[in-house]
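Rhodanese (Nitrobacter winogradskyi), 111 aa
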Amino acid sequence: MANLNFVVHDLTPEDVSKGITDGRYLLVDVREPNEIAAEAFPDAVAVALSTFDLTAIPDPQGKQVVFACRSGKRSVSASLAAQASGLPYDKHLDGGILGWKAAGLPTRSGG
């Protein structure tokens, strides 16, 4: 199978938060619009996995793309799909927004 060559790197919520602040990471939330409407990451771009369109991800402009979801499963799928399409997006937020909140990091109301 081809995706045995793909690797997805787990990043902690603290790593991702610091990377966003430092301008190293572009966070891409692959949850559904209704999930994001309920609660969202403060600085994420929304690209739902159910209609996953890699062209909807903005140019990271030198930043590394990090995928995020609710618990960390869909973000791995997004990373694998991106890699299968030839993009070097091999990072995800381990634990998703649940882990983010457990680490005491802020969320915002979606919408």
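Residues 73-84 form the longest helix (12 residues). The radius of gyration is 13 Å. ok done for today
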